């Protein structure tokens, strides 16, 4: 596995304690009936057979659901992008952050997870409650055609094709790096999210050229912000904190 420039000790420098500001009141929260209705619609649109979920970011390193099989898979026509504006979770009003979604164009190599046999609407509803909380995000949940070594299938994807309010699309990597090196919210920093994603992709043998360059740029930014370079090989344990996509 390649040696990352963004190290645990650099990530630890980005952490600071932040209070949870709570949900943005200008967004429309989903209620229990909304989740059930959306889960039923997605279940009716699903293929026959098992339920697969496409993971490209935090679902790879913190799925929070039981799976019975995993495979490498590629979603053509999409690519990873830090394009979701965040003033909560891994950002704040004073220092907004960015989170990852799928933007149009290119290809995205990720991992698909097969869920155990069960009632699909209930399984999908649990996934929805992890990933989204407001009506404005519903359109970012969709079935994605993916290619695997065993053939084509469809998997459920989250934060796909985001647009409009709360998004910053097509940003240059140096701009994204500047944000991730500085932003932190009540569950952790943007640098931590990037580190976890890239390191777990590497463990799966998935090499995302843009993310690899991004972690190099974030490492440079963190060193510049803190006015010192850490000795290679120095290891500081990351504090155990809840993490979310």
UniProtKB/TrEMBL annotation:
The keyword Protease does not apply. It is an enzyme of class 4 (lyase). CDD domains: GGCT_like. Transmembrane segments: none annotated. GO terms for molecular function: glutathione specific gamma-glutamylcyclotransferase activity. This is glutathione-specific gamma-glutamylcyclotransferase. Its EC number is 4.3.2.7. One of its GO terms (cellular component) is cytoplasm. Keywords: Lyase. GO terms for biological process: glutathione catabolic process. It comes from the Bacteria. Pfam families: ChaC.
């Amino acid at each position: 596995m390649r040696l990352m420039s963004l190290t645990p000790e650099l990530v630890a420098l980005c952490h600071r304690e932040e209070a949870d500001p709570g949900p943005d009141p200008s967004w429309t929260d989903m209620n229990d009936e909304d989740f059930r209705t959306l889960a039923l619609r997605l279940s009716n649109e699903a293929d026959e057979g098992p339920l697969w979920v496409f993971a490209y970011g935090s679902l790879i390193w913190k799925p929070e659901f039981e799976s019975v099989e995993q495979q490498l898979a590629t979603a053509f026509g999409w690519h990873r992008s830090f394009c979701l504006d965040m003033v909560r979770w891994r950002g704040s009003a004073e220092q907004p952050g960015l989170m990852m979604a799928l933007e149009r164009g290119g290809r995205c190599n990720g991992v698909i997870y097969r869920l155990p046999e069960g009632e699909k609407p209930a399984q999908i509803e649990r996934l929805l409650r992890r990933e989204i909380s407001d009506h404005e995000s519903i359109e970012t949940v969709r079935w994605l055609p993916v290619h695997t070594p065993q053939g084509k299938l469809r998997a459920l994807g989250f934060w796909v094709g985001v647009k409009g309010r709360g998004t910053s699309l097509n940003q240059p990597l140096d701009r994204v790096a500047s944000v991730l090196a500085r932003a932190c919210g009540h569950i952790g920093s943007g640098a931590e999210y990037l580190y976890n994603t890239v390191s777990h992709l590497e463990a799966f043998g998935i090499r995302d050229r843009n993310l690899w360059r991004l972690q190099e740029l974030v490492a440079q930014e963190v060193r510049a912000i803190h006015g010192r370079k850490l000795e290679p090989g120095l290891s500081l344990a990351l504090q155990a904190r809840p993490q979310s996509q």
